[in-house]
Design goal:
Strand order of the largest sheet: 1-2-3-6-7-8-9-10-11-12-13-14
Mean pLDDT: 91
Distance between the termini: 55 Å
CATH class: Mainly Beta
CATH superfamily: monomeric porin ompg
Radius of gyration: 19 Å
Number of helices: 1
Helix content: under 10%
Shape: globular
Structural class: mainly beta
Largest sheet: 12 strands, antiparallel, barrel
């Protein structure tokens, strides 16, 4: 199956999954739901990702990537706000091919394998409009990506990014639909006085097929707004996800197929993980 055929099939399935009550978004989706975790609640999620033919335009590497111990932590500091921390334990990359790139001469990689500690992101989400029968919920989310992953490994850029998104979601009968739109300010790994401004976007659908089981799908990415060639590592990116999640009490299990859309995205991959929500403290 070609990539275009796979994308078309995934889009059709996103619009045609079963029926039931959909809950607020979480893993395996990347599109943010405006609903927060709740005052005094903590959401802890973890998982593993695998992607085939992953491309790093800044360092000139192409291969297969395992992201091990990916985690997310959301802390409900009030009924409408939460603090978020996301990261991982290890990126392990099997190199299939190399090509000339701006940061190629900085690589310290030997052999056909490299790895590093993944970049972390820290941010917050604030819901400013609650959902009613006639209007969607709305929230703002902002976050910063930290430069944990080094450019010497070929997997990092050693730059810091800032992102700001508006999140909107509405439940219509049995379907939960969410959308994100915003911007990102991405630093250039080649020059400290250069940046690239990108448009962030996401659209997701969740629908339950039976009690506690949902089918989910989305397209999520960023669009380069610069005319000409953008700084390496800040190109347009987009990934489709199609998967399922099962909830039992405070625990949710999930899995999804990943399909890359742009030439810089992996051809395919998968993600699997779990989410746990629990009461941790009382907000005064």
């Amino acid at each position: 199956m070609t990539r275009s055929m796979a994308i078309a099939a995934a889009a059709a399935l996103m619009l045609g999954v079963g029926s039931g009550l959909a809950r607020a978004q979480s893993r395996p989706l990347a599109t943010e739901d405006p609903e927060t975790v709740g005052a005094g609640q903590i959401l802890l999620e973890g998982g593993v990702d695998y992607t085939q033919d992953t491309v790093y335009p800044a360092s000139g590497l192409k291969g297969n990537l395992w992201r091990i111990g990916m985690f997310g932590l959301s802390i409900g500091v009030s009924s409408i706000a939460e603090i978020q921390l996301d990261g991982g334990l290890r990126d392990s990359f099997a190199i299939k091919s190399t090509f000339p790139a701006p940061l190629s001469d900085m690589l310290t990689v030997t052999g056909d394998h490299t790895g590093d500690f993944p970049d972390a992101t820290i941010g917050a989400k604030v819901r400013f409009v609650s959902e009613t029968a006639s209007r969607p919920a709305m929230a703002i989310r902002f976050w910063t990506r930290l430069p944990n992953e080094s450019n010497e490994s070929g997997l990092g850029l050693d730059t810091t990014d800032f992102n700001f998104n508006l999140a909107v979601a509405k439940t219509v009968q049995s379907v939960r639909v969410a959308g994100n739109l915003g911007f990102g300010i991405l630093g250039s790994p080649e020059r400290g006085d250069v940046q690239n401004d990108v448009l962030n976007y996401g659209f997701s659908v969740a629908r339950a097929v039976r009690d506690g089981i949902e089918m989910v799908g989305e397209i999520n990415g960023r669009l380069n707004t610069r005319s000409g060639t953008p700084p390496a590592g800040t190109e347009s990116r987009s990934v489709m996800r199609l998967g399922a999640r099962a909830t039992r009490g405070p625990v949710r299990l999930d899995a999804a197929l990943l399909i890359g859309v742009t030439k810089y995205d992996p051809t395919w991959g998968f993600t699997a993980g779990a989410t746990w929500v629990f009461k941790a403290f009382t907000v005064q």
